[in-house]
Specification:
Order of helices and strands: EHEEHEEHHEHEHEHEHHEHEHEHEHHH
Strand content: 15-25%
Structural class: alpha/beta
Number of strands: 13
Length: 404
């Protein structure tokens, strides 16, 4: 099968890391190539990819002017939409160029930034949308003020979704939300997990539990949706559990409207406590296995997650997990089996889970081993590639029937 995966993300402003969409794109491309399929990855110009399988062809595309659309009023009201349509048009032209010499069977595009907008039918191949988390839902959990401009952006992303021949999603939690919000029939959305190769995490030796500190790790953007506000409210309780506890934040820190939690967190702490927290900022993906393996506990206090790679990576690293009992997290972590979950409304929930691990470290490692086995069994790249190809085949067959 000849497959095109389009990644709409730039790396972060530091160019040191990228988000879950980019991570998924490269993991999926490698998995499909390992399964013997021809894969093309398209990304915006100046995007630096992770290491790709030798059989994966990497292409970049840049912005193109959108004809007969960008009037002066259009640009005044929402220039961002004009700009993103230009990227969508460029991506479409890039795929059609590939199709001329190597006929494309299917194209997969993320829901983000309306990148599928210009892929209107008739097209010589079906286009599917992979739901990660649409902007409207991210803004909801970040409590972003909803303006008329934001509403126009949400409508733009929604129109782009309507171009799809099918949909995939890695969690039932997000599937339920998007079906309700966009009026999509549940039978139209296939739930398929994200692939993860555990080898990079297995290659790093795990730190001994007898060391003189307890290292807790938080990775990802420090925004409200991912638990920034919860961390602000719990940081003193966490550090007061034991003077041996150190807490590391790895990821983007200043999230604009989504919050800047670093300064409020630091202002709450004593001088001694401030010396036990570390803000690494954006981190190279190659450094993440070491961070996970050197940590005693991984903390994910998110209000909403789809199927976060950070959690999958922690589980692959045999790192005991403390996470919020919400959304897609609860589909990966079973409380008291492969990790510990806390309720968002319980102000002592996080600290209670951490205490349990410190009091019964053997149980924590048992949970971590169970979590690792879960990832190996359910997120093996070969398994996810197989399920993906079955899904693609069903879409292609339906698409071909409609074209007759």
């Amino acid at each position: 099968m000849n497959i095109v995966l389009i990644n709409p993300e730039f790396p972060s402003r530091s160019f040191l890391d990228h988000g879950g969409i980019a991570t998924y794109t490269y993991c999926m491309a490698n998995a499909l190539a390992d399964a013997g399929h021809s894969v093309h990855v398209l990304a915006k110009h100046n995007t630096v990819p992770d290491a790709l399988h030798d059989a994966v062809r990497f292409h970049t595309f840049t912005h193109e002017p959108v004809p007969r659309f960008a009037t002066w009023l259009d640009r005044l009201l929402m220039n961002e939409i004009v700009w993103e349509r230009g990227y969508s048009l460029a991506a479409k032209h890039a795929v059609l160029e590939i199709h001329k010499t190597s006929p494309v069977d299917i194209v997969e595009i993320a829901d983000y930034n309306g990148l599928a907008y210009e892929f209107s039918q008739p097209m010589p191949f079906p286009v599917i949308i992979h739901f990660h988390t649409p902007t409207e839902m991210v803004d909801l959990f970040n409590q972003k003020k909803i303006t008329g401009k934001q509403k126009r952006w949400y409508a733009f992303e929604e129109k782009a979704l309507k171009k799809a021949a099918g949909f995939r999603c890695p969690s039932n939690a997000l599937k339920t939300m998007v079906c309700k919000r966009y009026g999509i029939g549940p039978d139209k959305v296939r739930v398929i997990g994200h692939p993860l190769d555990t080898a990079p995490y297995e290659a790093v030796k795990r730190s001994a539990l007898t060391k003189s500190s307890v290292d807790i790790l938080f990775t990802g953007r420090l925004e409200r949706r991912k638990g920034g506000e919860i961390m602000l409210g719990n940081i003193e309780r966490i550090l007061n559990i034991s003077p041996l506890i150190n807490l590391t934040f790895a990821g983007e820190l200043d999230m604009g409207d989504a919050g800047n939690f670093r300064n409020p967190i630091e202002r709450k702490l004593t001088e001694e406590e401030r010396h036990r927290i570390w803000f690494l900022g954006p981190t190279k993906r190659g450094d993440l296995p070491v961070l996970y393996r050197q940590s005693d506990i991984f903390l994910m206090p998110s209000l909403f997650e789809n199927a976060p790679y950070a959690l999958l990576e922690a589980m692959a690293s045999h790192t005991p997990v403390v996470a919020a009992n919400t959304s897609g997290i609860a589909e990966l972590i079973s409380n008291g089996e492969n990790g510990l979950l806390f309720d968002i409304g319980d102000e002592n929930g996080i600290s209670s889970c951490i205490r349990k691990y410190l009091e019964t470290p053997d149980k924590g490692m048992s949970y971590a081993n169970t979590a690792y086995n879960y990832i190996k069994e359910n997120h093996d790249p070969a398994l996810i590639a197989k399920n993906t190809i079955e899904f693609y085949t069903s879409i292609i067959e339906t698409f071909a029937g409609q074209m007759i």
